[in-house]
Amino acid sequence: MTDGIVSEWLAEWNNVSQDPHSEKVSDFADSVLANEDLFQAVTHVLEENERFRPLYGDVIATLFALYRSPEKKLRLFAAQFIPSLIYVYLHQIHTQKKCIALETLLRGIYEFESSSEDGPPSGFRIPNVNLPSIYHDPGGVSTSWVSDSDLDRLNARTVKEITRPTLVLSDERIRAPQRLPLCTEVWWIFNYRLPDLPKASVPMQLKTISKLVTQGFHQAGSQSRIQPPIRVVLSSKLLIEMVHTVFFSVYNGAPTLAEQTLEEMSMRAEHQLWADAMLVCNAVRDYLKSSELPVQVEVSRFKKSIITNASFRTKKLPDDIPIVESDNATHEEPGSGETSALSAGLASFKSKSKIPHILAKMKRNSVVVITEEGDVETIASPPSSERKKSIDATAV
What we know:
Number of helices: 17
Largest sheet: 2 strands, antiparallel
Structural class: mainly alpha
Subcellular location: Cell membrane; Cytoplasm, Cytosol
Strand order of the largest sheet: 1-2
Family: Belongs to the Hyccin family.
Organism: Orchesella cincta (Springtail)
Shape: extended
Keywords: Cell membrane, Cytoplasm, Membrane
GO cellular component, one term: plasma membrane
Distance between the termini: 108 Å
Radius of gyration: 39 Å
């Protein structure tokens, strides 16, 4: 199964790579980046390289070609295997096996990202909150117009720029003091590309970190006489870069496995007595215990039926409703014809449903009148004294 998937992938890349500027390259990149079975198969070939010796060399050469490709998705596909490549490299170094091709691949990844404009930043700036600045304490800065020289002077005092040290690889082969720093830099590049990688690769990367940290240690309660595999030598800086990967995995698909891996990394840091790694592991572990839920962004949406001031402004009254103010309408005597006309007007009024317009046209000291045609009119109400006389006359 693994042989067939990897062999088909290698054959397809050989056909596509003959014309690197064709549309087939983009389609090939989309297909391989979303293929979970291919990722697991290639990872299996890398970590079980003794078993898949005929395919191992071709896989390393293909990954090197993919990382040098101008297609970004192909570089992301190759970047998924950086944890597995580092694990295989350190394991082969300690077992005294030749790994020239793998070493060349790791070195090529580092040099390509160092010279690329799209690579990770080489430094960052940290503000000094002890001194006033235009950001957090503008009152301590002069209120006059600030020139460029003034900004440079303020930045020199209040901002500290930290530049990441550059690893210089002058020899053809990687010497022993440069191996762990090279792995640390390559893993730092992997963390920079981590948000763009498929989330399906997160569990496999955590398992690789677990093997790097726990390999060579006896498990609790194990009484097996079989000699454990060789312990992989790590550094505190490399372990801290792994903590970044684990912290990212907590909120991207594998929280349980990430917390378990973090415990194993904390035990390795305590075993090696790495103060900086212990500090980072404990800080991340305490943060995860204090925050029960992952960081989420809540977006509140407004419904279409919400009523605002703009709703009333857009709903204007129809122009065909006349506003008639008549003083004679209140003095008309009621009759039989008016009663029938009034009932007909009420029926027409109910059918037209003009209640909102009635409420809108009502004014203070006014009376609503329904005409024979069913229209709604408002007339001014007479004073209270005249209304009382009219009522008394009607009663008599």
